[in-house]
Amino acid sequence: MMADLTSTATPDFVTVLSQAAAAYRGQKDTRPSPEILVNALLQAEKAAKQQRLTYPFESLLGRWRLCFATGTKKVRKRGGIILGKGLYVPKFVPIHISYNANLEHDSAKGEIANQVELAPVLLNLTGPVQYIGKKNLLAFDFNQIVISLFGRIVYNRPIRSPKIQTEDFYNQSIAKLPFFAFFLVTEDFIAARGRGGGLALWIRET
Prior knowledge:
Helices cover 17% and strands 40% of the residues. The chain is built from 3 helices and 13 strands. The protein has helices at 12-24, 34-51, 166-170, and strands at 62-69, 72-75, 80-83, 87-88, 95-101, 109-118, 121-132, 137-140, 144-149, 152-158, 179-185, 189-194, 199-204. The strands form 2 sheets. An 8-stranded antiparallel β-barrel has the order 1-5-6-7-8-11-12-13. Strand 6 (109-118) and strand 7 form a beta hairpin. The longest helix has 18 residues, at 34-51. The chain starts with 11 loop residues before the first helix and ends with a strand. The model has no long low-confidence stretch (mean pLDDT 88).
């Protein structure tokens, strides 16, 4: 079912995530600690599974700035992974992700762009995406890299062999592709778990 966690009484984890987004934008003085924020993300993920929330691809379209990420650590004895402590992304290194789609032709296909800026260098990766709405799963693949220096493109090349075209991506098994499993999507921020197990929070670029 499609639901909006903020439409009724606001859960505590939504409040925490909203505070983090506002503080990152400079609208609030105090931001939640990484430990509190990780706990809020885990609560949001649990709630999404319990309520079987689904979000349309349209709700992800736009430009988002990475606010917080955890990373993971491998556990040899247990043969699994555990979450890292997490950290707020330094503001002097803006990292943006954006999603675009031609919804008139296929509501589950589109493009992704991941941009990292470390002035005066700008790195931009682009490629196709496909979205599985029933699982809130967005698979992607980067196939083009562009590097700019002082606003001038100095490198623009395909990442993989020219023989591998975008259409080949859509024939790939999701299990073989990098992906984000989104568990909370609002007008202001989105949160997901990556294929590697880490959690991330993005805020809408204003």
